[in-house]
Every structure is written in structure tokens, then in C-alpha cells.
């Protein structure tokens, strides 16, 4: 029986993005309870943690017990320490190829919406917007070469896109990496 997930403001649909899996029942390494929804993303800890349930991530207890972080690199400025704590200790991450990077805007973290290629960006109508908004990594315009990469990017291909949306102004941003 699937239970309702806690809300993660910086990762609003972790089932859709595949960060939480539902293919089997496991035991959470923190609380010891069986769960049919478990975390499958990165967790940076000295401990070998195999399974975490959504509740133990949302309340920060798993991060505290295992002295771990779900994300350790982000672009831009966030001045509120509580927001940084929420992202690093109480937000499920996503799986990147090189390194999971979180995008910031308006002095806050953006919401991770999912994995994308040019096709998906066109379908939701934000391809031109993410090109116009520029590179969150360098806080600059995309180069012509990068724009061509974005326009030819295939979800699950050699270049993987990660779509983010600012929680304050609603702008969409793209981060991508190469296999």
C-alpha cells in the first residue's frame, strides 16, 4: 500500500523523476520500518546507507544520524542557512552523471522538475526560455556551441539536461552534463 509522500519544496515530484522507487519493499536504514517507497538517489556519507524512506529524509533524521548530505554543490547565492539546511539535509537529490548540481535564483534554491532533452523542453514550451536565461553554472549567456548542444540534447543521450524552476519568479533554468 503506497503512502502519501512528504512534500519536498525543492524536489516537488520525486516519484515522477525516479528519485524514489516503488518496485519492492525494503527496510529503511534509519527507522527500521518497511517501506514500499524508497530513495534511490545520491547520499554523501561515510556510512554505507542502502535504503531511506521519504519520511526519514523529510524530517532530517537520516541526514543527522548518518552525518550525510543529499546534495553538496550548488550554483549561485543562498543567504538563508535554513534553506541550505533544507536542501542538503531534507531534500532528495537527483542522479547526475558527473555531479549533482542544484541551481539557485532569487536568493533561493530552484525546484528540480526532471530530466530533459530538447524534445521535452520544446513540449513544455521552455526551450527558448532556458536558452535566454543562460547558464546557471557561470551566471552568463550560453555560448553558441552550448546553445547547439542544448538544441540537440536527447534525454538519456550523451548530454543530459536537468530542468529547474525558480520558486519566486517562475523562470526555468537548465543545467546539463556530458557522459
User: Count the strands?
Assistant: 10
Q: Which value, in Å, is the CA radius of gyration? A: 17 Å
What is the terminal separation in angstroms? 37 Å
Q: What order do the helices and strands follow?
A: EEEEHHEHEEEHHHEE
Structural class: alpha+beta
Rough outline:
globular
Strand count, sense and barrel status of the largest sheet are: 3 strands, mixed
- The helix count comes to 6
Fraction of residues in H or I helices: 10-25%
What oligomeric state is this? single chain
Ranges where pLDDT stays below 50 over 5 or more residues in a row are none
Largest beta sheet: what is the strand line-up?
5-6-7
What is the beta-strand fraction? 15-25%
> What is the averaged pLDDT score?
93
Commentary on this structure:
The chain is of the alpha+beta class. The chain contains 6 helices and 10 strands, in the order E-E-E-E-H-H-E-H-E-E-E-H-H-H-E-E. The strands form 4 sheets. The chain has a 3-stranded mixed β-sheet with strand order 5-6-7, with helices on one face. Helix 3 links the parallel strand 5 (74-75) and strand 6. The chain is globular, with a radius of gyration of 17 Å. The termini are far apart.
Amino acid at each position: 500500500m503506497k503512502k502519501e509522500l512528504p512534500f519536498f519544496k525543492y524536489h516537488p515530484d520525486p516519484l515522477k523523476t525516479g528519485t524514489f522507487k516503488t518496485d519492492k519493499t525494503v527496510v529503511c536504514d534509519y527507522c527500521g520500518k518497511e517501506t514500499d517507497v524508497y530513495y534511490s538517489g545520491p547520499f554523501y556519507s561515510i556510512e554505507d546507507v542502502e535504503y531511506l524512506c521519504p519520511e526519514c529524509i523529510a524530517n532530517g533524521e537520516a541526514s543527522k544520524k548518518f552525518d550525510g548530505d543529499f546534495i553538496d554543490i550548488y550554483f549561485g547565492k543562498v543567504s538563508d542557512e535554513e534553506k541550505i539546511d533544507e536542501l542538503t539535509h531534507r531534500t532528495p537529490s537527483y542522479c547526475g552523471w558527473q555531479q549533482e548540481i542544484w541551481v539557485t535564483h532569487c536568493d533561493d534554491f530552484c525546484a528540480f522538475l526532471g530530466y530533459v532533452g530538447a524534445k521535452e523542453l520544446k513540449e513544455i514550451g521552455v526551450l527558448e526560455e532556458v536558452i535566454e536565461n543562460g547558464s546557471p553554472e557561470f551566471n552568463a549567456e550560453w555560448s553558441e556551441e552550448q546553445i547547439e548542444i542544448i538544441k540537440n540534447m536527447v534525454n538519456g543521450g550523451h548530454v543530459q539536461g536537468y530542468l529547474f524552476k525558480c520558486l519566486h519568479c517562475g523562470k526555468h533554468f537548465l543545467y546539463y552534463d556530458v557522459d
